[in-house]
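User: quick one, fold this
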Amino acid sequence: MKKGNSFVSFLARNGFYIVLFLCVAAVGTAGYVLFFQKQPAESENDEAVFDYEYQDFVESTQTKEPKATGNIEDAPVFSETESQDVSEDEPQDIEPVTVTEELYVAPVSGEVIFDFSGDELVFNRTMDDWRVHSGTDYAADLGTQVKAITDGEVTRVYDDALLGKTVEIVHGEYTARYSNLSDAVTVEPGQAVACGAVIGCIGDTATAETNEQAHLHLAVLCDDRYVDPSEIIGK
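Assistant:
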């Protein structure tokens, strides 16, 4: 009986502390259990968030290709033959090459004052006789530049007894003689000249035509026969 009274007395004296200890132990146990039960769930949530953010990062760094829309059967089909400009089956119309006619220009811009006479005799006022006029006279002031009627090569520069300072140029099938020039000739034998190139200037050296106004006397030969210069230049 004494032993039971001692235990009751111990509880009476220390009961508060025992209850406090048990409460603390219970709270600690409960906290421990709750902590370790919640930890795996939080870890899984963290991994899910990490995977989601990583996937967004990868998708943002990749070039997205546009998605095809519509029915693929409606898309046009291109073949090698369709991509070529010229079909092998159909002949193409080829435009003929236009050959540019040989260019001729007037040696001076003045009007014709004495025509080519051919075989017909005409009166020469300076010589006071009748004779053929083997060339065409173009009016031009003294010192006016004289131009080559077309491309050619200078063959002679000489003084003619009747027609004065003369430059002879071969223009393909034609040979042209530019007479009544001044002594200031700008070309020499063997020199190539282009159409419209200046070869000299108008002078007053043609003794057989001194009674005429200042002019250029142009004679053209073809196969050693004189032809009308106006017809050549008018081509």
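User: anything notable?
Assistant: The chain is about 30% helix and 25% strand.
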